[in-house]
Specification:
The complex is a heterodimer of chains A (299) and B (527). Chain A has 299 residues and is an all-alpha fold. Chain A is globular, with a radius of gyration of 19 Å. Chain B folds into two domains: 397 residues, no CATH class; 109 residues. Chain B is 61% helix and 6% strand. Chain B contains 24 helices and seven strands. In chain B, the strands form two sheets. In chain B, strands 4-3-5-7-6 form a five-stranded mixed β-sheet, with helices on both faces. Chain B is globular. Classes of the chains: A mainly alpha (299), B mainly alpha (527). At the A-B interface, α10 and α11 of A face α12 and α13 of B.
Amino acid sequence: MTSLLNALLMYVVTSRIWSTRARMLATFLMMVTPAGLYYSRIAPRSLFPVSFILAWLWCVAAAEFGGQPRALVLGAFVLGIGCYSYTTAIVLMPVYLIITLGLSFYRRRTHWLPAAIVAAFLLPTSFGMWWVATHRSVYVERAERYRIYDASRLNPLQGMKDFANYNNIQERVSLYWDFFDPQFLFFRGGAEMAGGYSAGMLPAACALWIPFGLYVMSKRRTAFDVVLLAGLLAAPLPAILVDEPYIARRDLAVIPFAILAAVIGAETLLSSGKRFWRVVTIGLLVTAAAQGIAVALRR
Amino acid sequence: MTNRLAACLCAAGLALFAALVYLHALGQTPIALHGDEVQFAMQSYSIATTGRDLNGHSMPFFFAIADPLIKNNHTIVWFQPMLFYLQAVALKVLPLSEAAIRAPTVVIGVIDVVLLFAVGRYVFPRMWQAALAAALLAISPAHVIFSRVAMDYICPLPFVLGWLLCLASYFRQRREWLLVAAGLLLGAGFFSYIAAWVMMPLYVAVTCIALWWTSDRRVRAILLVCGGFAVPLFAGWVWSNPVMIHDTLLRYKIIGAPRDPLFGGQGGIGVEVLTRASVYWDYFNPSYLFLSGGSRLVDSTRRAGVLLAPMAVFLVVGVVDLWRRRDVVFNRILLAGLLLAPVAAAMLDERYRSDRELVLLPFGVLISVFGVSRLWTRHGVARLAVLALCLASAIQFAFFYRDYLTDYRVRSEVWFDPYDFRKISQYVVSTDAEQRVPAVYLSPLIDYAGYRWKFYLQQRDRNDLFERTQYLPANADLSGVVPGSLLVFASQDPALDTVLKTGRCTVAATVLNEVGSKAAVVLRVAG
């Protein structure tokens, strides 16, 4: 169900920006993404942040392409609610809030907009912050459960200092890099997905399309492209807080950004005058469908 | 002062600086000799003194690393010739010591710095840029570390830099002999280190592609490079032992491993390729490149990366800058060099082995200086950032070097010589001086035991003691052991307890390492 909802949301997001073909392509890829199919079955909660990210992207697209800067305020509100969707969202949503703020500063449309964005985010999250402040044991339990620091002995500031030692930074940077390992993204989706699923987080076809998409995005560098790139780069941040490599469920936020980048790449290839690339892209679409069906049918 | 004189003085200054950094306390840091270092040392010493290797072959091209304690020992381990002969030359003039056997790699390190300065003079418009490139190479942690160990990992670098120098010069002057020289250097470099077997042909391919794009008489130009490359290869093929290639392919499991009849590898070719792609990806891991370095303490201090951390910024800016100016063919060569650097390491399915991808250094440093130059052309904050990052590089190097000479020296001991053979030999020799030791038995579980033992006895001119040494029989059977003999075990050797329980042996000495932990135990067989 979550996977289907996300596919629908992807259609809505892209309806603001792309042609029907690209829209269909994005929706199709969202539907056949192995990690989406896999986690919608075993841990649908882990996919909830993706829905909120897609809703936020719809707001960003409305602000960028629809000339409705107030949509960013709605986007921030969505992010605020999204904080309650899954543990990873607690890290991700504030990061996407910062991206939203960056966009509003870049556009410089109105003076009140950044303040309104922050307020819209704080509105739903303040309740959660108050709750955590009054239930400190929950915070301590979470910090220890994910082995971030010894919260029973150290206060958050000391915990931050403890966390930011040289060895830990080395490890986390390394971990971050590993979450972009092509083998993990496109061919073997890490420890959880490895059992019987010879598929990566994303359809293998994306291994060709995403580099093309990123190249095109880095060339044209529209504000929306920069948001997509920033979103993609920020996606593994919750995963690296917990020192476990290749755990796909903590990196699911990568899916919408990666698929949008892949669609840009695939569209570029389909629109190129060369028949070879068109044939390759269509061939890859068939493999993506086959891979999706294979993952969906596996028990 | 003419420009040429200024360049010569600058190069001399850089060489002097590099020599000081690499020579300081060379015999003491690293703290002990690694197994590979003693293998090089003993074969080279044999060449220097007798003209034959330890297997009795006269001036061999490749060296079979057989165990000197076992007669007619069969081995599939073959080493490349370059460092052996350089060490043999050094040992002709210097007495056998840790510093003497490490001296040739120091010379190679210094040559690298000077050559990079020369390449920089061709590719950068200003002399300070070339000097900065050379200085950054000289203080790169990986370059410092590998210039100070008697292992051949650093040996391909002068050849790669020479090749780059020939190409840079060729693209400016269009003299054809430079292409022959480039090919010859790559061909000679082929025999510098095993990774060069993969890398040098790749560089030949890069050269051919570059010439195809740029030369008027492209076929002739390509033939000149390939011809130059083929000459040393042919000479090597004629001189070498035919078994060597088979053994080496077997050793690296390229042939002989159980294979899937359809796809080749154990898990199919697809799995193999994906695994290698993942390994390749990890060689660009920023943590490995700029924060922690190679995975073994022999290759890095684990407190600094392959390159200094501030260079991360320069490298990224440099890559973007060169990509934008990729119409210049030499820029494409540098980018290709950076991308190809981990290929040999990735082929062997080994992650974070900086020793196998040291060819990254010249490309990384040159591209970083392009990044510096790019930022320098922008005024204001960018220039301040360049100065701050250069200062940060110098400070990081100071910290790294201090750690390298002090704390790293101790914490890396178990990686170099976990048994402390220097102290073992000291004890055995002094005991033998008091009362003749009839025989010495080494545990077969000690790594590189024959070579380590031979080195320290040779250093004390006690070859006679080596003649009385053999490995302990299997199952620690003491029935044939002569009373009064000494037995040497690693402290963790499981056979140690078994032997002590027989009641025939007493602990004669316990060897402690620098931090005071038990490294080895010497037992005496009761009469």
